[in-house]
Amino acid sequence: MPIRLPLTCKILTGLSISLLLSGCFERHRTTDSLCEGYPALCKELNVNDGQCRIQRTTLIWQRYDVLKNPTDQEKFKELKDTQKYIYCLEYAARIEPTELKERKTIRMNALYDSYNNITRLNNELASSSDPEIIYYRWSQGDELAQNQFLELEGKPELETPDLQLALASYYISKDKDKTYQLLHHALSLYKKNEVVNQEIIKSLATLSQQQEKLKEAYIWVLIANNMNMPVTKSKKVANLFLLTEDEQNRLNKKATHILENLRNGSYKQNMVN
C-alpha cells in the first residue's frame, strides 16, 4: 500500500529536490570560485589582469547564465557582453606592460578567442525568431533579417519603444509622416518610471523642425534639456523660431505636462498638439 505524505512533507520534499537540482549552480558567490567550478567559462580570458576587469567579470557571469538557461535572449546578452569585452581588449592589447610581459600575449589571445566567440554566437542566433535579435542581424547588414523584421510590423512582437524606434529608423528616408507616428507610438509604450530612450526625443525634435512644426520642435527641445540631452538650448530655439514670451510660457507648461505623463507611463500623442 503506497504511503501518503502529508501536504507539508510534499512541499518540503519538492523544495528539497529543487534545491538539490539548483545547488551546483548557486553555490558560487565569487568570480574566482565560479572559474574554479567551471573552467570553460573563463578559458582564454585575461584573468588575473587589471585591464578589462569589469567587462571580463560581467562576461563570465553572463556565460554562467547561458549555461543555466541557454535561450536565444541569454546568448544575445553574452554576444553584447563579448563585444564590450572586445572593445576594452582592443585598447588594452596596445598597452605595453611594465612587468609580466606575457600579459600582452594573453590579452591578444583573449582578443582573438573573443572574435571567434562572436562568430559562434552569431551562427547560433542566425535562425532566431526573437525580434531584437532579428533587428541586430539587420543592423549587421543581413538583408534577410531586414525583411523578417519588416514582416513583424503591426504585430505584438514589435510593441516595445526600442523596436518601434528601430522601425522608425527604416522609414525616416521613405515616409516622414509615418516615422513621426511611430516615434509618438514608441513613447506611448513606456510604463511608469521606465527610462526613455533619448534617441526618440531627439528624433522628434529634429523631425518636427523638418516638418516645420516649430512649436512642437520647441517642446521636444525643452524635454531634451530637462533630460540633460546634448541638444541646442531651448532659449536659442525660441529666438530662432521667433516665439513670443507668452508662447514660450504656454509651451513650457505643455512640456512639463508631457514630461509628467512620460514618467507616469501615460503619454498620448495628442498631448503635444
Looking at how many chains there are and whether they match, the oligomeric state comes to: single chain
Helical/strand content category: mainly alpha
Q: Strand percentage, roughly?
A: under 5%
Based on Cα principal axes, name the global outline. elongated
Distinct helical segment count: 14
H-E string: HHHHHHHHHHHHHH
What number is the mean pLDDT? Answer: 88
What share of the residues lie within helices?
55-70%
Distance between the termini: 76 Å
User: Could you please say which CATH topology of the largest domain applies here?
Assistant: Serine Threonine Protein Phosphatase 5, Tetratricopeptide repeat
Return the CATH class of the largest domain: Mainly Alpha
Low-confidence stretches: 1-24
Largest sheet entry = none
| CATH-scheme architecture of the largest domain | Alpha Horseshoe
Describe the protein's architecture and organization.
- This protein has 273 residues and is mainly alpha-helical.
- It folds into three domains: 30-125, no CATH class; 129-154, no CATH class; 159-271, Serine Threonine Protein Phosphatase 5, Tetratricopeptide repeat.
- It is 68% helix and 0% strand.
- The protein has helices spanning 7-26, 31-37, 39-42, 53-68, 72-92, 102-124, 131-139, 143-151, 161-171, 176-188, 198-210, 214-226, 234-240, 245-264.
- The model is unreliable at 1-24 (pLDDT under 50).
- This is DUF2989 domain-containing protein.
- It comes from Photobacterium leiognathi subsp. mandapamensis.
- InterPro entries: DUF2989 (IPR021372).
